[in-house]
C-alpha cells in the first residue's frame, strides 16, 4: 500500500496555505494602509490606493473561500443554507453522472461506430500470433484446467456429477436411440461386416485345441451307452472334430456368399430388432428396466467411480508437470488460432460481424444496470470519502480560484478607488 503523504506535503494543502497566506497578507496590508493614510500619520494618497486594493482583495479572498468551502462542507461548521453542496447532493450527482455516461459513452451508435473502427478480428489475430501473448493465454487456460481437475477430484463434486449423469441416463429414452443407431449401422451394410468379424473369431476359437477338448468332454458326458464299451472318449474326440469341421465349413460358406440364407436371416433379425426398439412400447420398457438394473448394480457404480478416479488422476498428473502434454497442446492451439485467423479474412469478418450484431442487445440489456450501479455507488459513498476524493482531484485548481479571487478582487478595488478619485476631481 502506498504510504500517505504528510498533510502539508500534498499539493492541495500547499495551495490552501498559499491562499490563506495571501488573505493574511491582504489583511495586514489593509491594516497598515488604513493606519498610514490618516492625517495624523502624514501618509500620502498612495496609502489610500493600497488600502482599497487590500480591502477588495480580502473581500474577494473571503468570498471565494466561502464558495470553494461551500462545495464540500459547511463553512466554519455553520448551518448556512445551500452549503455542503456535494455531500448533500450525492444522489443527484450520481444519477446525473450515470445519465451522462450512459448517454454519451454507452449509446448504441457511438459504441458501434467505435467497434467498427477497431477491426477486432485483425487485432485478435495479431495479438494471438505474438508468442508471449499466446503463451500467456495458454498458461491461463492451463491454470483453469488444473483448477477444474482439482475440483472434479473432490468427493462432493464427484458424487454430484455422478448423480446428475445417472439421472440423465435414467431419463434417456434409450430404445429409440439404439434403434436409430442400428438403422445407421445397417444402412451401409456395416452389420454384415460385423457378422463376418464375429464368424471369423468364432472359427478361430473352435479350432483351438482347448476348445476342441471342451467340446469332446461335453459330447462324451452325453454318450452314456458307449461308456460301458470303453468307446466314449474316442467317439467324443471324433465328434468334436466333426463339429469343428462342420462349423468351419459353414462359416467359410457364409463368408464367401453375400446372398447366403443365414445372412438374409440375420438381416431380418436385425430389422425386426430395430422395429421393436422404435415402435414396441413393451420392448422399450424392457430396455429401460435393464438400463436401470445396470445403473443400480454395485459393480457399475464401482466401475464408474474407478473410471472417474483414473481419468481425473491422469489429467492431474499430466497438468502438474512442466512438460505437460495437455499444456503444450493448449499453447500450440492458441498460437495456431492466431495464425489461422491472420490468414482467414472471412473468419475475421465473421468475428467483427458477430460482435457488432451482439453489441446492441448487450447494450440495451446492461446500459441501465451500469447506470444504476454508478448512481448507487456514488450515493453509498461516505461523505468524507467523496469529499476527500474530489478534493484530491480538483482541490488544487479550486485553491487557485481563491488566489485569483484575492488578486482580481484587489485589482478591482484598486481600479474602483482610482475611478472614484478621478470622478471626484
Can you put this structure into words, describing what you see?
The relative contact order is 0.15. The chain has helices at residues 11-36, 46-72, 85-88, 90-104, 108-118, 120-129, 131-153, 155-171, 174-187, 190-206, 209-222, 232-256, 261-279, 281-296, 298-320, 325-342, 345-380, 383-423. By secondary structure, it is an all-alpha fold.
Uncertain residue segments: 1-5, 225-232
Quaternary organisation: single chain
Number of helices: 18
Distance from N terminus to C terminus (CA atoms, Å) equals 67 Å
* Overall morphology: rod-shaped
* Residues in helix, %: over 70%
Structural class, please? mainly alpha
Proportion of residues in extended strands: under 5%
Q: Could you tell me the mean pLDDT?
A: 78
Q: How many strand segments? A: 0
Specify Rg, calculated over alpha carbons: 47 Å
N-to-C SSE series? HHHHHHHHHHHHHHHHHH
How does the major sheet shape up?
A: none
Provide a short characterization of the protein structure.
The protein is built from 18 helices and no strands. It is an all-alpha fold and 425 residues long.
Using brief descriptors, characterize the structure shown:
18 helices; mainly alpha; disordered N terminus
Give the secondary structure arrangement, pairings included.
Layout: H1 11-36, H2 46-72, H3 85-88, H4 90-104, H5 108-118, H6 120-129, H7 131-153, H8 155-171, H9 174-187, H10 190-206, H11 209-222, H12 232-256, H13 261-279, H14 281-296, H15 298-320, H16 325-342, H17 345-380, H18 383-423
Helix pairs in contact: 1-2, 1-18, 2-18, 4-17, 5-17, 6-16, 6-17, 7-15, 7-16, 9-13, 10-12, 11-12, 13-14
Amino acid at each position: 500500500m502506498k504510504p500517505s503523504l504528510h498533510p502539508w506535503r500534498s499539493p492541495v494543502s500547499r495551495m490552501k496555505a498559499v491562499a490563506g497566506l495571501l488573505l493574511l497578507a491582504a489583511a495586514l496590508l489593509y491594516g497598515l494602509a488604513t493606519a498610514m493614510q490618516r492625517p495624523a500619520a502624514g501618509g500620502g494618497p498612495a496609502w489610500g490606493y493600497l488600502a482599497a486594493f487590500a480591502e477588495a482583495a480580502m473581500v474577494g479572498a473571503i468570498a471565494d473561500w466561502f464558495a470553494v468551502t461551500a462545495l464540500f462542507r459547511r463553512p466554519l461548521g455553520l448551518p448556512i443554507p445551500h452549503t455542503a453542496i456535494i455531500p448533500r447532493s450525492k444522489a443527484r450527482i450520481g444519477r446525473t453522472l450515470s445519465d451522462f455516461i450512459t448517454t454519451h459513452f454507452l449509446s448504441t451508435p457511438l459504441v458501434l461506430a467505435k467497434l467498427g473502427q477497431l477491426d477486432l478480428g485483425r487485432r485478435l489475430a495479431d495479438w494471438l500470433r505474438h508468442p508471449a501473448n499466446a503463451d500467456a493465454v495458454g498458461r491461463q487456460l492451463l491454470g483453469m484446467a488444473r483448477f477444474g481437475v482439482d475440483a472434479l477430484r473432490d468427493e462432493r463434486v464427484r458424487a454430484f456429477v455422478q448423480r446428475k449423469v445417472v439421472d440423465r441416463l435414467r431419463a434417456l429414452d434409450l430404445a429409440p436411440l439404439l434403434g436409430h443407431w442400428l438403422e445407421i449401422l445397417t444402412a451401409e451394410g456395416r452389420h454384415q461386416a460385423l457378422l463376418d468379424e464375429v464368424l471369423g473369431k468364432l472359427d478361430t476359437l473352435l479350432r483351438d485345441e482347448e476348445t476342441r477338448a471342451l467340446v469332446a468332454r461335453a459330447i462324451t458326458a452325453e454318450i452314456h451307452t458307449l461308456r460301458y464299451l470303453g468307446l466314449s472318449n474316442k467317439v467324443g474326440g471324433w465328434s468334436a472334430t466333426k463339429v469343428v469341421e462342420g462349423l468351419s465349413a459353414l462359416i467359410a460358406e457364409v463368408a464367401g456368399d453375400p446372398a447366403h440364407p443365414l445372412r438374409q436371416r440375420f438381416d431380418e433379425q436385425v430389422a425386426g430388432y430395430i422395429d421393436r426398439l422404435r415402435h414396441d412400447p413393451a420392448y422399450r420398457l424392457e430396455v429401460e428396466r435393464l438400463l436401470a438394473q445396470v445403473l443400480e448394480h454395485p459393480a457399475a457404480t464401482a466401475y464408474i467411480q474407478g473410471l472417474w478416479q483414473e481419468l481425473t488422476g491422469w489429467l492431474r498428473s499430466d497438468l502438474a508437470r512442466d512438460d505437460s502434454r495437455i499444456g503444450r497442446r493448449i499453447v500450440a492451439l492458441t498460437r495456431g488460432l492466431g495464425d489461422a485467423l491472420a490468414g482467414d479474412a472471412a473468419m475475421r469478418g465473421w468475428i467483427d460481424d458477430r460482435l457488432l450484431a451482439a453489441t446492441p442487445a448487450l447494450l440495451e440489456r446492461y446500459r441501465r444496470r451500469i447506470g444504476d450501479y454508478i448512481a448507487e455507488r456514488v450515493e453509498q459513498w461516505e461523505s468524507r470519502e467523496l469529499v476527500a476524493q474530489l478534493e484530491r482531484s480538483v482541490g488544487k485548481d479550486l485553491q487557485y480560484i481563491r488566489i485569483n479571487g484575492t488578486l482580481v478582487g484587489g485589482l478591482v478595488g484598486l481600479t474602483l478607488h482610482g475611478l472614484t478619485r478621478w470622478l471626484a476631481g
